[in-house]
Amino acid sequence: MGDYHGSLVVFRTDFHERNQSLYLLPILTMNTFLRYFFCSLAAIFLLGAALNFALDPLGYFRNHDVYVGTFLGERVWGDDRTAYDLSIDTYRPDTLIAGNSRVKRGFAVDDRHLSERLGMILNLGLPGARFDELDRYIRIVLEDHAVRHLVIGLDLGQFLRGKEPVGSSTPGYWLDSDGNFPLWLKKLAAALWSKNAFLASSKVMLRAHNTTLNGGANPETMLEKLEASGHRRMTRKVEAHLARRYSRFDPEVYVERVVALDALLATGCLKNTEVRLFISPIHIRQLLLIREVGHLGLFFNWKTQLTDMVSQHQKKGCRVTLTDFSTISPYTSEPFPEPGDKQHRMQWYWESSHYNHQMGRMVIDRLWSNDDSHDGFGKNLTAENIAGWLGEERNNLNALVRSQPGLVKEISDLIH
Hints:
Layout: H1 2-55, H2 78-87, E1 95-99, H3 101-106, H4 112-118, E2 121-125, H5 131-143, E3 149-154, H6 183-193, H7 195-207, H8 220-246, H9 251-270, E4 274-279, H10 284-292, H11 296-315, E5 320-324, H12 357-369, E6 379-380, H13 386-403, H14 405-415
Parallel strand pairs: 1-2, 1-3, 3-4, 4-5
Antiparallel strand pairs: 5-6
Helix pairs in contact: 1-7, 2-7, 5-9, 9-11, 10-14
């Protein structure tokens, strides 16, 4: 009887342990799966960090600060800047066309009409570019190569302050005095682990042998956007962004970038490079936008300052000119399609801020023709004519405001 009870106890214990093992098996399997999952995830993050660090260590943020509200989800055009950092010094163009996204989208370097006149072209159009960024890239190209023609598209926004940076860039403790992560750590995290940085690095690694900076040579992307949104919707989005940018005026930043342009013109003169500056052909909607944010006086003063600067370099024998395409003309006054119209295609513009390569070709024709008699599109600015020209522009703008109250209200409603 004792042996029976003992056997029964052993059997029950053994059965209970087996049952418990069978019960724990899914949990152990799940734990193993989670362990492999998290290890794989960590490996992917480490691989991404290594890739970004190897290709461009912290260079992803060499030109952009980390801003309020951005830690891993920053909004930066990393692919363009990564491509420039890795390949800009390999180009030997006859003509360098530099500027922001207006230049990028406005000049097709595979246009035979342009290449016959300008030779090999490099379109250095950098979306959202500040002038100090352009200055750095232009100097890299000019350093070891004799560029025949340097064409720079200038915009007031290039001389204004960007978003408000967080703190300073000096490395400190893991937490600053306010208990927040210091800027250098935020930069490191964003540069090593952000999605944009990872995709940009992967793209460059996979296509490093054929990375080309060809600007608006391929307009299919813009055409796809137009088919989805139409000119009007694209314009409203761009204008909302630029309204914020136009409102950020910092005298110190402005002076620093004007001085940088002055120094670049001196460098171009020393290298005997022909420099043709032009003020971008923005649509009249943009001109009204600048007026509405209260910077019309700044815009005109900026033109005067540029003109005086160019005049001083011309007196020293430098080959430099300044042409203003931001004037009110039949081209910059092209009517926009009605709201909701996705079928109509404008002749000269993608939206009010960005002109297309047809207008880009016309800008080049005008820059090389030295003829400013046709329809007021493009005016050679000199110390002798700048005051009269700006007076004429003010009169034309006042007439536009009186004749198109609906458009003025539309722009005003966007701001207020």
